[in-house]
Design goal:
Blueprint: E1 8-16, H1 19-29, E2 34-38, E3 42-47, E4 50-56, E5 66-70, H2 74-83, E6 87-88, E7 93-97, E8 102-109, E9 115-122
Parallel strand pairs: 1-4, 5-9
Antiparallel strand pairs: 1-5, 2-3, 3-4, 6-8, 7-8, 8-9
C-alpha cells in the first residue's frame, strides 16, 4: 500500500481538559461503548468500529484531535509517503505489546501542520 487510499481510520484521539468528565460524557450521556482505561489519563471507546481515545492535551496533539490510520507494513507506507513529501515526526516504533499483537505507530503532519499517525497491529 503506497498511500492511505485503502487505510481505515482506526483511532481518533480526542483532546480533553478533564478526562474523567469527558469519559462520563461519552459513556453515560452519549452512550458510546466504553472499552477500557489506561491509567487515569486515557479512556478508550468503540464508536462503530473506530476507537476513540480520550486524553489530556500534551505533546504533538496539544489543542487538536489526531487521526490514526491502520495500515499494513508501516515502514513501507512511511517511506512511500516521505517520497511524496510527507514530514514524519518519528520512526515506526512499538507503543504497546498486547496478548495477540504488537501495536506500532509512526506520527506525521498533514499539510496544515496537524499531527496524524500510521498505526499497525503486528501479529506473529
Amino acid at each position: 500500500m503506497p498511500d492511505l487510499a485503502q487505510a481505515r481510520i482506526g483511532q481518533i484521539a480526542i483532546v480533553c481538559q478533564d478526562v474523567a468528565r469527558a469519559t462520563a460524557f461519552y459513556r453515560d450521556v452519549l452512550g458510546v461503548p466504553f472499552l477500557f482505561s489506561a491509567g487515569p489519563a486515557l479512556s478508550f471507546f468503540d464508536a462503530g468500529g473506530t476507537r476513540l481515545m480520550l486524553g489530556p492535551a500534551e505533546g504533538e496533539a496539544r489543542g487538536t484531535s489526531m487521526l490514526y490510520f491502520f495500515v499494513k507494513e508501516i515502514a513501507a507506507v512511511r517511506e512511500a509517503l516521505i517520497a511524496k513529501g510527507v514530514e514524519f515526526i518519528d520512526e515506526p516504533h512499538m507503543i504497546a505489546r498486547m496478548p495477540d499483537h504488537e501495536l506500532w505507530l509512526a506520527a506525521f503532519r498533514d499539510s496544515e501542520g496537524n499531527p496524524m499517525a500510521l498505526m499497525e497491529e503486528k501479529r506473529s
